[in-house]
Amino acid sequence: VPEGAPDVLCLQETKCAVSAVPAELRALPGLPHQFWSSAKDRPGYSGVGLLARTEPLEVTYGIGDPEHDVDGRVVTAEFPSLFVVSAYVPNAGRGLVRLEPRLRFDAAFLRFLQGLDARKPVLLCGDLNVAHAEIDLCHPRANRASAGFTPQERQGFSRLLEAGFVDSFRHLYPEARGAFTFWTYLGGARARNVGWRLDYAVVSRRLLGALCDCKIRSAAQGSDHCPVTALLAV
Protein backbone atom coordinates (compact mmCIF):
# COMPACT_ATOMS: atom_id res chain seq x y z
CA VAL A 1 0.00 0.00 0.00
CA PRO A 2 1.56 3.36 -0.97
CA GLU A 3 2.11 6.00 1.71
CA GLY A 4 -1.01 8.07 2.14
CA ALA A 5 -3.30 5.19 1.16
CA PRO A 6 -3.99 3.55 4.51
CA ASP A 7 -6.39 0.69 5.21
CA VAL A 8 -7.60 2.64 8.25
CA LEU A 9 -7.19 6.37 8.90
CA CYS A 10 -7.70 7.64 12.45
CA LEU A 11 -8.24 11.36 13.04
CA GLN A 12 -8.29 13.24 16.35
CA GLU A 13 -9.44 16.66 17.54
CA THR A 14 -11.59 16.99 14.45
CA LYS A 15 -13.66 19.77 16.10
CA CYS A 16 -16.38 18.90 13.63
CA ALA A 17 -19.98 17.79 13.96
CA VAL A 18 -20.85 14.70 11.95
CA SER A 19 -23.13 16.82 9.76
CA ALA A 20 -20.28 19.25 8.99
CA VAL A 21 -17.64 16.78 7.71
CA PRO A 22 -16.26 18.40 4.54
CA ALA A 23 -17.28 16.89 1.20
CA GLU A 24 -13.65 16.29 0.19
CA LEU A 25 -13.18 14.09 3.28
CA ARG A 26 -16.40 12.21 2.54
CA ALA A 27 -15.06 11.56 -0.95
CA LEU A 28 -11.58 10.33 0.02
CA PRO A 29 -10.70 7.54 -2.42
CA GLY A 30 -10.34 4.12 -0.87
CA LEU A 31 -11.89 5.10 2.48
CA PRO A 32 -15.65 4.80 1.94
CA HIS A 33 -16.53 3.55 5.44
CA GLN A 34 -16.43 6.59 7.73
CA PHE A 35 -17.33 6.89 11.38
CA TRP A 36 -17.32 10.24 13.17
CA SER A 37 -17.91 11.24 16.77
CA SER A 38 -18.23 14.78 18.07
CA ALA A 39 -18.79 16.47 21.40
CA LYS A 40 -22.42 16.79 22.41
CA ASP A 41 -23.57 20.44 22.55
CA ARG A 42 -19.97 21.72 22.26
CA PRO A 43 -19.30 22.75 18.66
CA GLY A 44 -15.60 23.00 17.77
CA TYR A 45 -14.49 20.86 20.73
CA SER A 46 -12.75 17.47 20.67
CA GLY A 47 -14.04 14.87 18.19
CA VAL A 48 -12.55 11.85 16.41
CA GLY A 49 -12.95 9.99 13.15
CA LEU A 50 -12.15 6.54 11.82
CA LEU A 51 -12.14 5.91 8.06
CA ALA A 52 -11.72 2.43 6.62
CA ARG A 53 -11.10 0.78 3.27
CA THR A 54 -13.17 -2.28 4.22
CA GLU A 55 -16.33 -2.27 6.28
CA PRO A 56 -15.75 -3.08 9.97
CA LEU A 57 -17.68 -5.90 11.60
CA GLU A 58 -18.88 -3.46 14.25
CA VAL A 59 -18.26 0.13 15.34
CA THR A 60 -18.76 1.53 18.82
CA TYR A 61 -18.53 5.04 20.22
CA GLY A 62 -17.12 6.05 23.61
CA ILE A 63 -15.77 3.90 26.43
CA GLY A 64 -18.90 3.35 28.47
CA ASP A 65 -18.12 6.28 30.78
CA PRO A 66 -20.82 8.98 30.88
CA GLU A 67 -18.41 11.65 32.18
CA HIS A 68 -16.28 11.46 29.06
CA ASP A 69 -18.42 9.92 26.35
CA VAL A 70 -20.28 13.20 25.75
CA ASP A 71 -17.01 14.67 24.44
CA GLY A 72 -16.70 12.38 21.41
CA ARG A 73 -13.19 11.13 22.21
CA VAL A 74 -13.14 7.48 21.13
CA VAL A 75 -14.39 5.44 18.19
CA THR A 76 -13.61 1.71 17.92
CA ALA A 77 -13.86 -0.48 14.82
CA GLU A 78 -13.76 -4.26 15.01
CA PHE A 79 -12.10 -6.06 12.10
CA PRO A 80 -11.62 -9.82 11.69
CA SER A 81 -8.15 -9.89 13.25
CA LEU A 82 -8.11 -6.88 15.59
CA PHE A 83 -9.82 -3.83 17.07
CA VAL A 84 -8.69 -0.39 15.90
CA VAL A 85 -9.32 2.43 18.38
CA SER A 86 -9.07 6.12 17.43
CA ALA A 87 -8.72 8.19 20.59
CA TYR A 88 -8.25 11.80 21.65
CA VAL A 89 -7.32 11.77 25.34
CA PRO A 90 -8.31 14.82 27.43
CA ASN A 91 -5.70 17.51 28.04
CA ALA A 92 -4.98 18.25 31.69
CA GLY A 93 -5.14 21.94 30.83
CA ARG A 94 -3.14 25.04 31.58
CA GLY A 95 -2.34 25.09 35.28
CA LEU A 96 -3.49 21.43 35.41
CA VAL A 97 -7.07 22.57 36.05
CA ARG A 98 -8.41 19.38 34.41
CA LEU A 99 -5.86 16.90 35.73
CA GLU A 100 -8.35 15.04 37.96
CA PRO A 101 -10.88 14.35 35.17
CA ARG A 102 -7.98 13.39 32.92
CA LEU A 103 -6.80 10.80 35.43
CA ARG A 104 -10.34 9.43 35.75
CA PHE A 105 -10.41 9.11 31.95
CA ASP A 106 -7.09 7.25 31.94
CA ALA A 107 -8.39 4.68 34.43
CA ALA A 108 -11.70 4.16 32.60
CA PHE A 109 -9.95 3.99 29.22
CA LEU A 110 -7.53 1.33 30.44
CA ARG A 111 -10.45 -0.80 31.66
CA PHE A 112 -12.12 -0.35 28.27
CA LEU A 113 -8.97 -1.37 26.37
CA GLN A 114 -8.46 -4.41 28.59
CA GLY A 115 -12.03 -5.46 27.83
CA LEU A 116 -11.34 -5.27 24.10
CA ASP A 117 -8.00 -7.04 24.48
CA ALA A 118 -9.70 -9.95 26.23
CA ARG A 119 -11.65 -10.52 22.98
CA LYS A 120 -9.03 -9.87 20.27
CA PRO A 121 -5.83 -7.81 19.83
CA VAL A 122 -5.99 -4.01 19.84
CA LEU A 123 -4.32 -1.25 17.83
CA LEU A 124 -4.81 2.08 19.62
CA CYS A 125 -4.06 5.14 17.48
CA GLY A 126 -4.29 8.65 18.74
CA ASP A 127 -3.35 11.79 20.53
CA LEU A 128 -2.81 10.40 24.02
CA ASN A 129 -1.73 13.80 25.38
CA VAL A 130 1.26 12.45 27.29
CA ALA A 131 4.99 12.35 26.66
CA HIS A 132 5.87 9.13 28.43
CA ALA A 133 9.59 9.49 29.11
CA GLU A 134 12.14 12.30 29.14
CA ILE A 135 13.26 11.26 25.64
CA ASP A 136 9.72 12.04 24.41
CA LEU A 137 9.91 15.82 24.70
CA CYS A 138 12.51 18.47 24.01
CA HIS A 139 12.62 20.12 27.44
CA PRO A 140 11.72 17.58 30.14
CA ARG A 141 13.21 19.49 33.07
CA ALA A 142 11.20 22.63 32.38
CA ASN A 143 7.92 20.71 31.96
CA ARG A 144 7.66 18.52 35.04
CA ALA A 145 4.49 20.33 36.12
CA SER A 146 3.12 20.84 32.59
CA ALA A 147 0.04 19.14 31.18
CA GLY A 148 1.17 16.01 29.35
CA PHE A 149 4.29 15.43 31.44
CA THR A 150 3.06 15.24 35.04
CA PRO A 151 4.11 12.16 37.02
CA GLN A 152 0.45 11.10 37.23
CA GLU A 153 -0.09 11.19 33.45
CA ARG A 154 3.19 9.40 32.79
CA GLN A 155 2.23 6.74 35.35
CA GLY A 156 -1.09 6.33 33.55
CA PHE A 157 0.79 5.46 30.36
CA SER A 158 3.10 3.12 32.29
CA ARG A 159 0.01 1.31 33.61
CA LEU A 160 -1.19 0.84 30.02
CA LEU A 161 2.13 -0.77 29.12
CA GLU A 162 2.10 -2.93 32.26
CA ALA A 163 -1.36 -4.19 31.24
CA GLY A 164 0.08 -5.89 28.15
CA PHE A 165 0.23 -3.08 25.60
CA VAL A 166 3.30 -1.84 23.70
CA ASP A 167 4.30 1.62 22.44
CA SER A 168 5.16 0.47 18.91
CA PHE A 169 7.47 3.36 17.97
CA ARG A 170 9.53 3.14 21.14
CA HIS A 171 9.63 -0.65 20.90
CA LEU A 172 11.21 -0.37 17.45
CA TYR A 173 13.34 2.72 18.10
CA PRO A 174 14.26 2.71 21.81
CA GLU A 175 17.06 5.25 21.42
CA ALA A 176 15.52 7.61 18.85
CA ARG A 177 15.84 11.22 20.06
CA GLY A 178 14.06 14.27 18.64
CA ALA A 179 11.18 12.02 17.52
CA PHE A 180 8.24 14.32 18.16
CA THR A 181 4.67 14.55 16.85
CA PHE A 182 3.52 17.91 18.25
CA TRP A 183 5.02 21.40 18.14
CA THR A 184 3.36 24.54 19.48
CA TYR A 185 2.64 27.20 16.88
CA LEU A 186 4.50 29.70 19.10
CA GLY A 187 8.09 30.79 18.57
CA GLY A 188 8.96 28.73 15.50
CA ALA A 189 9.01 25.57 17.59
CA ARG A 190 8.57 23.22 14.67
CA ALA A 191 11.44 24.64 12.64
CA ARG A 192 13.68 24.13 15.68
CA ASN A 193 12.09 20.74 16.50
CA VAL A 194 11.14 21.89 20.00
CA GLY A 195 8.42 19.29 20.32
CA TRP A 196 6.64 16.53 22.20
CA ARG A 197 5.74 12.95 21.25
CA LEU A 198 2.04 12.87 22.13
CA ASP A 199 0.69 10.67 19.32
CA TYR A 200 1.06 6.92 19.45
CA ALA A 201 0.30 3.58 17.85
CA VAL A 202 -0.08 1.24 20.82
CA VAL A 203 -0.54 -2.48 20.18
CA SER A 204 -1.48 -5.53 22.20
CA ARG A 205 1.75 -7.37 22.99
CA ARG A 206 0.67 -10.38 20.94
CA LEU A 207 0.56 -8.16 17.82
CA LEU A 208 4.31 -7.52 17.98
CA GLY A 209 4.97 -10.36 15.53
CA ALA A 210 2.78 -8.53 13.02
CA LEU A 211 4.39 -5.11 13.59
CA CYS A 212 6.44 -4.09 10.54
CA ASP A 213 7.15 -0.43 11.32
CA CYS A 214 5.89 2.71 13.00
CA LYS A 215 6.80 5.95 11.27
CA ILE A 216 6.54 9.51 12.56
CA ARG A 217 5.78 11.59 9.46
CA SER A 218 7.28 14.82 10.75
CA ALA A 219 7.57 16.39 7.28
CA ALA A 220 3.79 16.32 6.82
CA GLN A 221 2.43 19.83 7.37
CA GLY A 222 -1.09 21.12 7.95
CA SER A 223 -1.43 20.86 11.74
CA ASP A 224 0.50 21.40 14.96
CA HIS A 225 0.64 17.57 15.09
CA CYS A 226 2.05 15.27 12.42
CA PRO A 227 0.75 11.88 11.29
CA VAL A 228 2.01 8.57 12.69
CA THR A 229 1.84 5.52 10.42
CA ALA A 230 1.65 2.01 11.87
CA LEU A 231 2.39 -0.83 9.46
CA LEU A 232 1.00 -4.20 10.55
CA ALA A 233 0.83 -7.49 8.64
CA VAL A 234 -2.53 -8.82 9.82
SSE layout and pairing:
Elements (H helix, E strand, L loop, with lengths): L7 E5 L10 H4 L6 E5 L10 E5 L5 E4 L4 H4 L4 E5 L4 E6 L10 H19 L4 E6 L23 H12 L2 E3 H5 L26 E6 L6 E6 L11 E5 L2
Parallel strand pairs: 6-7
Antiparallel strand pairs: 1-3, 2-3, 4-5, 5-6, 7-9, 8-9, 10-11
Organism: Loxia curvirostra
Function: Initiates repair of AP sites in DNA by catalyzing hydrolytic incision of the phosphodiester backbone immediately adjacent to the damage, generating a single-strand break with 5'-deoxyribose phosphate and 3'-hydroxyl ends.
Keywords: Cytoplasm, DNA damage, DNA repair, DNA-binding, Endonuclease, Hydrolase, Lyase, Magnesium, Manganese, Metal-binding, Mitochondrion, Nuclease, Nucleus
* CATH homology group: Endonuclease/exonuclease/phosphatase
Give the % helix. Answer: 10-25%
Q: Describe the oligomeric state of these chains in a short phrase.
A: single chain
- How does the overall form come out from the CA principal axes? globular
How many domains in all?
A: 1
Counting helices, strands and paired strands, the structural category is alpha+beta
CATH architecture annotation name: 4-Layer Sandwich
Distance between the termini: 13 Å
Radius of gyration: 17 Å
Beta-strand content bin:
15-25%
- Largest sheet, strands/sense/barrel: 6 strands, mixed
Low-confidence stretches: none
> How would you write the strand order of the largest sheet?
4-5-6-7-9-8
CATH topology grouping: Deoxyribonuclease I, Chain A
Integer average pLDDT: 96
Instruction: Please give the count of helices.
Output: 5
| CATH level 1 name | Alpha Beta
* Order of secondary-structure elements: EHEEEHEEHEHEHEEE
The tally of beta strands, per DSSP, is 11
Family: Belongs to the DNA repair enzymes AP/ExoA family.
Organism: Loxia curvirostra (Red crossbill)
Pfam family, one: Exo_endo_phos
Keywords: Cytoplasm, DNA damage, DNA repair, DNA-binding, Endonuclease, Hydrolase, Lyase, Magnesium, Manganese, Metal-binding, Mitochondrion, Nuclease, Nucleus
